[in-house]
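Posting for a labmate who doesn't have an account.
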Amino acid sequence: MKLITIVLLVISLMEIGCEGNRQIIAQGDWESAVVVVTQTPNPDGDGDGIDDAYDCDPDNPEVSQIAVEICNGIDDDCDDLVDDEDPSVTGQQSFFADADEDGYGIPVSSCEEPFAVAIYEELDCNDKAPAVNPEGHEVCSDGVDQDCDGQDLSCADADNDGDGFTENDGDCDDTDPDVNPEDGGCE
């Protein structure tokens, strides 16, 4: 009866977790059998704290699931995302990307310099429209902020004829530079 119990115990232990590096050793005679289950840890060849069986790069101690993603062209943290693809990346530089190539850009953090970089480090309020930038010419009441000052210019505030006066300043004909309040033409 004891022999059957010991054999069943050994078989049961083998079924519930004897994989790879575990051993079951039966010692002694069948009357006083001792069953010893030993487990050796998985090797960590690169010393990064992750067992080789689970380490995505078991030969490189700088790459593992516990590593920090840095700008170096390598997937350091084993999440299949490299550098700028990984939202947890560190070490990015600041650039002013200039998608519309008008010389003004928007601030971006990136591991590598974007294709087009702004000449001026000023904010472009619309980097998809080359005519819209901090030096853009404002067209009144068109619903577009061409000069990036945060507002569209009202036509009443615009000097449309270049004489230095607007409708709000008393210019009665803002299409003719010779007619303005200073010249007496608006009386």
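Reply:
Got it, the structure tokens are right above this. The helical segments are 2-15.
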